[in-house]
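Bench notes, afternoon.
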Amino acid sequence: MTEVTIRAADGGNFKAYLATPKSGKGPGILLIQEIFGVNKVMRDLAGGFAAQGYTVLCPDLFWRQEPGIDITDQTKAEWDKAFSLYQGFNVEKGVDDLKSTLASLRKHPACNGKAGSVGYCLGGKLAYLMATRSDSDANVGYYGVGIEGALGEAKNIKKPLLLHVAVKDQFCPPEAQAKIREGLKGNPLVTIHDYAQQDHAFARIGGEHYDKAAADLANRRTAEFFKKHLG
């Protein structure tokens, strides 16, 4: 487990957390952070995917505002900081940084060239945008926030996309969920799983809304999805 440096398309460098499989090589997974930076939750997720045989890169997407953000969801001050960073985040540049990371991941000696993405919260929307704007081989979004505002791009989806939707998500209300389903219906590349009793971030271990049964189900579906499309 270590850090690598990624060159941004518009200049400058940023860091990405790297986790590699015991085998030494495997398909790649671009792990996309929540609003708390590349924190222990993200590093643990990276380790988990590496244990499944993947080479994982989790880039620091807030580097343009403040490099090295590593906070939790446990205090109001940290939430305030996270929302401030979220509000100042440039989605267009963020996607560019993800595409740069994906290209770097594919070239890494521990990656076999195939690579997908998985994101949570903010990263859930960005995983959707990776499906519409990049050549990522497969993409997974957990409780993405704001996808309903980017459905005009749905026609660009050319690779499999899996979305996990928390039906009681306070940041993605029922009307937004309805727009997402309507905007993506009929696309055979898109799979949407609903989690009826779950709130936002139900898969974040240690979080207020963590639900082990729902998280285990979502994670199993993600593992099967990546095994099918990246394995």
